[in-house]
Amino acid sequence: MKKLVLFDLDGTLVSAAGAGRTALVKAVKALYGQEPQFEHSLISGRTDTDNFAIVYELVKGKKAPKAEIKKIHNKYLELLPAEVQAGCKKKAYKLMPGIRKLLEKLSKEKDIVLGLGTGNIEQGAQIKLAPSGLAKYFICGGYGEDGHRREDMLKAAVKRAEKLCKTPFTPDQVYVVGDTHRDVLAAKNCGFHSAAMTGGFGDAHLLQRAAAELEIKNFNDIPTFYVWLGLHTDPKGVKRGIYISPASAIEHVFFSRTGIDEDRLKMLRIKKYSDLPSGTIM
């Protein structure tokens, strides 16, 4: 049975030295004469389409028409390559620890299909990935053009993978890897498996509340990642408190922590955050 693994880009595969945010701010200033002011957490984990609309509303005080989103889209792509190159020149562009080795190993697994599940628009993703040499591992992806919501982007990635592989992927065959609570939230809302890379750009508290099945600081721990994917079944050597997937042979790992967070256990068990009374992860 094939499994589809979708990787987020920023903070998961690479750190592009803030190239995307810088290009976005410069694009808006060039178009509207005003620099948008916002915290990085506002745009982290969202799709570019959503972010273009958000920054437009910040400077114009009204919702963004499609024509204006397109203008920002085009200007952003015009400016992004120079920002990525600047990050490389300063040696601030970095691959996340262990990712190349993990992707190389996964690419040799006959039942594993690798794809992107990123909020970046497709051309922007290609620009950001180019210096890393990682693009060759992904056969398809879901991108910022696929909608304002990450759920739409992930579902689009699955459809493209199904078309290329000529096989359907049930939700239980899809594994989403990201670094923010929005990655986890979107995966759960689609019924997909979720992994959180805690050494990225995500807020630590929100990531913990999101309760991904797998939590790892980086990708150096390949054995644990393989257990999560169901490629290895022997939990020997798996560090306590990292792998907390329900309905697995090593669910006891969660309970072996010092103290049981019943609220977080509830978050782990639910399929969709909308099932909570508040409808949110907070």
Task: Write structural notes for this entry.
The chain is an alpha/beta fold. The protein has helices at residues 19-32, 40-43, 48-60, 66-89, 99-106, 122-129, 150-165, 181-190, 204-210, 222-229, 252-255, 262-269, and strands at residues 3-7, 14-15, 94-95, 112-117, 140-142, 174-178, 193-197, 214-216. α1 (19-32) crosses α3 and α3 (48-60) packs across α4 (66-89). The longest helix is centred in the first third of the chain and has 24 residues, at 66-89. The protein is globular, with a radius of gyration of 19 Å. The chain starts with a strand and ends in a 13-residue tail after the last helix.
What is the C-alpha radius of gyration, as a whole number of Å?
Answer: 19 Å
Average of pLDDT: 86
Largest sheet, strands/sense/barrel: 6 strands, parallel
End-to-end C-alpha gap: 36 Å
Helix proportion of residues, in percent? Answer: 40-55%
The number of distinct β-strands equals 8
Beta-strand residue fraction: 5-15%
Q: How many helical stretches? A: 12
Give start-end ranges of low-pLDDT stretches.
Answer: 239-260
Rough outline: globular
Give the structural class: alpha/beta
- Largest beta sheet: what is the strand line-up? 5-4-1-6-7-8
Secondary-structure element series: EEHHHHEHEHEHEHEHEHHH
Any chance you could write out the topology, listing elements then pairs?
Elements: E1 3-7, E2 14-15, H1 19-32, H2 40-43, H3 48-60, H4 66-89, E3 94-95, H5 99-106, E4 112-117, H6 122-129, E5 140-142, H7 150-165, E6 174-178, H8 181-190, E7 193-197, H9 204-210, E8 214-216, H10 222-229, H11 252-255, H12 262-269
Parallel strand pairs: 1-4, 1-6, 4-5, 6-7, 7-8
Antiparallel strand pairs: 2-3
Helix pairs in contact: 1-3, 1-4, 3-4, 4-6, 7-8, 8-9
